[in-house]
Amino acid sequence: MNKFAFFFPGQGSQSVGMMAGFAEAGHVAGIVRDTFTEASDILGADFWAMATVPNEQINETTNTQPIMLIAGVATWRAWQETANKQPSILAGHSLGEYTALVAAGALAFKDALPLVRYRAEVMQNAVPVGVGAMAAILGLDDASVRALCLEAAQNEVLEAVNFNSPGQVVIAGNKAAVERGMELAKAQGAKRALALPVSVPSHCALMQPAAVQLKAYLENVTFNKPSIAVLHNADVAAYNESDKIKDALVRQLYSPVRWVETVQAIYAQGITQAAECGPGKVLAGLSKRIVAELPATALISQAALEEFQAQLD
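Below the sequence we write its predicted C-alpha cells.
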C-alpha cells in the first residue's frame, strides 16, 4: 500500500462557503456539521454560520484560528468515516500544526479549541493593529530574502518567516520595515512583493510576548503521545514527549514556518502521496512546487475524499 501524508492548512485558507463540499445531506455531512456544533457549544460562537453566511467575522484572528481548526478536524473525521487507511505522517502549516496534533490524538479537540482562541488573542494583543505587517516575496531565493531583511530592518524587526515554496517567502515585522523590505525586493528583481491582509505579524520576534503567555497557558494543557508522527514547523522534527511538543508550539510563534523542508522531509521518508485535510488548496499547490513527485489532493468535498481513497487502493 502506498504511504501517504496529510497536510493541515492554517490561517489564510478560510473563506465563506469553505465547507460547501460537505453540505449535502448524508452521514459524512452530518459528521462535519456535528463537529462545528460541538465547537460552537464549547466556544459560544456560531462557527457554522461564519463558514456559510457572508460575514466579516471569519477573518478576525480570534475567529479564524478556531474555525480553521474546526474545519480541519471536521474533514479529518469525515476521512476517518470514509476510509480505512491512516496517513503515515502529519504536518500542519502554522495553526494547522494544532489540527495535526488533534488528528494524531495528542491533543483533545475540546482542549484545542480554547487553546487556539487564546493563541489568537495573545498574538493579536502582542502587537497593536497597524504596527506590524507581513508580505509575500515572489521570485527571490531564500538567501536573498534573508539578506534584504537584514538590510531593510534598520533597527526594527524584519524577518523571513514562511518558507512556503521555492521562490515564495513571506516576511514579517514592523510595518515600516516590511514596506522597506518590499521596495528592496522589487529593486532586486522580485517578481512581486505583496502586502498580506493580516492583522498580526506572525512567526517573527514581535511575537515573543505572546510566546511567554502561550507557554504559561500550555502548562495546564494535557498532551498525549501522538499515534501518528507530527512534523513541527519550528524544527521539522516529530516529538512524543509532552514537554517537547509544548516547547515546539511556543517556539513556533516566533520562528519561521519551514514548509519547504517539511515537505522535502516527508518525501524523503518514502511518502508517495499526500492530501490537504481542510478547506482550500493552498498546501496542495505548494506541495507540487516543492516536490513535483509528491502530488497532493485537496480534500474539500466528500467526492474528493472518496477519490483520494480510490487512489490509494
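DSSP finds twelve helices and nine strands in the chain.
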